Amino acid sequence: NLTSLDLTSRGIAELRAAHEDVRRRYQAFAERKLKLNLTRGKPSSKQLDLCNELLSLPGGDYMAGAVDTRNYGELQGLPELRAQLAPIFGVSPDRVILGDNASLALMHDAVVYSMLKGTVDSDKPWSRESRIAFLCPVPGYDRHFSICAQFGIEMIPVPMLDTGPDMAVVEQLVASDPQIKGMWCVPKYSNPCGTVYSHETIERLAKMPAAARDFRLFWDNAYAVHHLTHEHIEITNIDEACARHGHPNRAFIFGSTSKVTFAGAGVGLFAGSKDNVAWYLKQMSMRTIGGDKVNQLRHVRLFNTNGGVAALMDRHREILAPKFEQVLKTFEQHLGDSGVARWTRPKGGYFISLEVLDGCAKRVVQLAKEAGVELTPAGATHPLGKDAQDRFIRIAPSFPELPEVTQAAEGVAVCVLLAATEKLLQ
Ligand code: PLP
């Protein structure tokens, strides 16, 4: 196998031969005229089927204790569901607010409320500042960046390390620039790297001095219970850490049941300090008289009868883990010793991050598309879609069935090799 040795240390003749070999493999793959898609970080139909019981809940009994779930009210959400979800996010149930199906909507609203009204620690609304900036660990989640772009918030990329964002960079920036008001954080099994923030990282985020008194961590714990292995990693409690270091209001915590029950009909949540929760409820009370309590009650009953969230997540893992293993195995087989790619081996979450040679990510995505494999656009993992080094590709194996995942991963591997030999021959 001509590509089983480090391509970056080959002579020209050997590289040309490797290139020809890979080109033939690429052609053969393209001729299969497959239609594969690795762009969608969403649950597969089999995963959604795990919760089909929701479709017949709550049954005829729509009362949650004394609360008639069909009616207005209970702005903060049903106490029973808050009690079930609160421990996952490390706060008490009185400091949880249930929203509608998308936590993204709650993040969007938290930004809007801060812009138009200011936070509990702001002297004035953020929109009255000359400039607002957020730190954006990269690679990161494109929809976080879209919220910033939408409201004219400057995005400052910060490199991700194996332990989370590069804290030396974060501390320096946050301490020196009072216009930095926020930072996006996906602390567990991050999108797309699968990174878990270390204890030290979380302590430093909670403790670091901020030039802006109203600096906020947008703590998007979207993958809190989404383990891919039997090792159920727990992270340091951000709410406690912030309180302990004298910054009780620093963290806005977000989460949802999108990838626990139904991605389109789950329950989103906001959590935080007593003051942050009162602040959020006040803004929210202008927007709604109460959320979808029928859905909240359906969730309570589903969790009560199915062994709770953890048991459900085990069943998700059984479906998801083989797909991730297949991608990793295929990459290892085809790219393992090639020296032209590396990738993350996540222990949870929904993504694998593939890193190719500088300047090759766009080309890989294009080659893959032409051969029938749809990938997330290169650059999507960076603010404004700009990955300056053009090296990161997000792989989402959750949605297709296992045979398609296998074929798609093979196709991607061949595209990576082809783009690399093209580049090395330039
Ligand atoms: N946050 C992260 C990091 C995500 O990856 C996703 C979905 O891919 C979301 C939030 C969306 O969550 P929700 O469905 O609760 O809006």
From TrEMBL:
Keywords associated with the record: Aminotransferase, Transferase
Pfam family, one: Asp_aminotransf
Entry coiled-coil feature ranges: none
Lineage: superkingdom: Bacteria
Record GO terms (molecular function): transaminase activity
Keyword Disulfide bond recorded: no
Signal peptide: none
The protein's name: Aminotransferase class I/II-fold pyridoxal phosphate-dependent enzyme
Species whose genome carries this gene: Steroidobacter gossypii
